[in-house]
């Protein structure tokens, strides 16, 4: 029987309602008190109640890193109402399709996200729309979607919790149920990485749409101040660092790379001793640059939505013991977590030093090994090294992208016979998708690379849009007639080399 989540939710309510005059977050420097946050959280839930949205419905939330969206999460969780994160970086038509297919009884979003296509989707579902206005801090029910009027079924949770889009660590990205009873694990994961004393301000660079949504809850439980940055911007981030003087910051490798590329002054970053992160392997050269230029040590970790948080991490004690000797490692398994590496074909456990798929047992989730498609090895001291993806996934600035999804979208274009996609190196975000497209013989459609990029942008999130599209006479193939991905990669690396000449 699942562990009861109510005691934890009661603790969250107490934390949310204490010290109402204390400033708990800012949005690009504009402050918000804990009392304001709690009032907005309650008002959002009251709107759902007044509109007769069923208590067991999983409410869709088009998540942004903004104050009212944070309040929505806190309000729903405090009221024991389930929520499903909707990825906001989609074209309006794709968002509308997601809403209809997901059968949401209600959707909460920034007012500007309620495009005609999205409102039509709500009406089709008989769903309620609650609009958030970041500028005025007002909330309002949409006039033409103001009452739950669904005659059919609607999305509901088996057990109250968050439903988050996975990063693709264990396969194709999918929505993962994250029961409220597991939120305590998110809090403890963050607490374990804290230095002595009060936690420093959290300058938020992770998107709250995924597993980082748990950080909202953890920050409230740990009395940790949040500085929200909706879309990462080096200048805004540096301004927050100057203002808040944190002892450490967090983010994916792409953020660290952008900071380095911007040649931010060492004086501006002088308060920072550590850079915490995860989501992708941190390049050793980037770690060295942070250390040599700024005196910032890297404390890395590894986790997934399917694991309900982090399973492998460095700690300050480990860093003090090993220093740079294990640079490039993700760290060691957290207490209670079991880690192993298995053969990619047979699934048999491999000895120390061998490379294979990473598996983990997370006791709070159950007794079974959870398979990932990440390649890893474990050294003689128990440190785990991330060696890439075994499924060809592209990691673009921390976002894990399945190349097949892009290829399938391109293949729906009336002029396209077949498409194939690979990841190619990119200095700023680590890797970007590049697509090769073979057109149908005799097609009369006027096709260009830019038009194909726009076609993908209409169907998929912005991170999936290929950075490069090349129209080819025929896709390269192996002897067995499969697309030769190695040759495809060479096609784009050769092109990049020519462009640099």
Automatic annotation (TrEMBL):
AMP-binding enzyme C-terminal domain location, by residue? 406-482
Q: What SUPFAM superfamilies does UniProt report for this protein, alphabetically? A: Acetyl-CoA synthetase-like
- InterPro entries noted in UniProt: AMP-bd_C, AMP-bd_C_sf, AMP-dep_synth/lig_dom, ANL_N_sf
Tell me the GO molecular function terms: medium-chain fatty acid-CoA ligase activity
Domain (AMP-dependent synthetase/ligase) ranges: 15-358
Which CDD domains does the protein's record reference? AFD_class_I
- Which keywords appear in this protein's UniProt record, sorted alphabetically? Ligase
Task: Give the record's GO biological process terms.
Answer: fatty acid metabolic process
**Where are the membrane-spanning stretches?**
none
Domain of life per record: Bacteria
Q: What is the residue range of the signal peptide feature?
A: none
The record's comment on protein family reads: Belongs to the ATP-dependent AMP-binding enzyme family.
Q: What is the name attached to this protein's record?
A: AMP-dependent synthetase
Species of origin reads Sphingomonas turrisvirgatae
